[in-house]
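Team,

Forwarding the record for the chain on the shared tracking sheet. I've put the sequence and predicted structure together so nobody has to dig through attachments.
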Amino acid sequence: MKRLYIAFFVSILLQSCSSDLLNTSPESTKVTANFYQDQEQLEQGVNAVYASLQYNGQYQLAMPAIGEIPSDNTFDEVPANDSFTYGEFDFFTIQPNNSLLAEAWKDHYVGIQQANIVLNRIGGISMDQTLKNTRTGEMRFLRALMYFDLVRIFGNVPLVTKETTNVNEYFGQGRTPVETIYDFIESELKESIALLPAAASQKGRVTKGAALGILGKVLISRNKFTEALPYLKQLETLGYSLLSDPSAIFNPANKNNAEIIFDVQFTSGLNGNTEGSQAYQMFSPSGFVSGAKGHNLPTKEVYGLFASSDLRRDAFVGLTPNGVPYSKKLVKTSNAVADGGSNIVVLRLADVYLLMAECYAKGNDYVNANTYLNKIKTRAGISTVNMTNQQLLLDEIALERRKELVGEGHRWFDLVRTGKAVSVMTQYFQNTPGYNTAVIKEYNLLMPVPQSQINTDPAIKQNPGY
């Protein structure tokens, strides 16, 4: 029986998808038992964990798509492209054999296993202690981020926290409860905060700010608003700032700007145009550029939410000559359409400010809630508010999150964590032409476990409803 797809490899091979920021280069396949003998080799292992974020099943395609298409923010213009893989998310006809979900499971566990290997070996490597602490913090953060993604997509998933040298060690363990996984994520992020530097030594490296922000988001996902706020507030002391011009945030010439807290790096034109991202090709309207697939496009509804005076509308969303919305957060940077150079933003300051506004609103601190909400409105060039009704204020914050973060992979997870996914999507289907057959049920709040995992290990059970 093949057990590869569980990704708990007997000896996972070092995978090095290179990234210019981390100075990696294609390496010969190395069995880990004979590797990690010195600092140089360890650094290659660290870079391989960063590289896993670039995989299709992580931030190249899966997280932006799964975080948006099931919501009212984006839609699939051409569902038949790519064997209905993306269209299934649009209509909630998602099948356990969906290839994007299979990649999401596999690619996250590849990154987790690689992080486990580095964390297991780093103690025995002779290197500067400060650097060792930093690398340890990076690995703990990235592993926690990957588990956060997995638990939001699938719910219970196997929790593997040490290097796996024998696949049978985890075969048959089944899935770990969500709360246990969240406890682990919180612990890892808190550990990483103490280890990480405030500023990155290289663009794209994890910093203390990234750990603070993601921990805040994790706590909010568990309805721990009071506990989340102090972590989010610490970000204000670390030098991040909102850019005055929304169009500058995603300009490829302005990568890693003062608003970006953590993003996944992509660069066009390297190694025969193989190091860029497919996102621009996959998430552009069909016929808009050669080879575009028409997946994950902004809906006409979300485009219509922007006032004409809102600077974000034309900065974030464009219209084709046929009136089809498309994301301006992804930019064509190469003649090779599948070699995109736009980074994928995981966390930026606008997201944090809106989370802070939500925390304050939940705590009935309307002065601060309005203050942080209005930071986003003021930058957008639209009227500020002074709201004192908690529910109306929370609704306004949710609306600004929807507009500000459109296409960045947050809307679906926001709907799920706030308990609004079924009601919002049911109304959207009723009001939007072409969705008369679409139905969302409570079980759709989690995605199906890939059938390949269940076939491989019967102890891994399917989510209800699939």
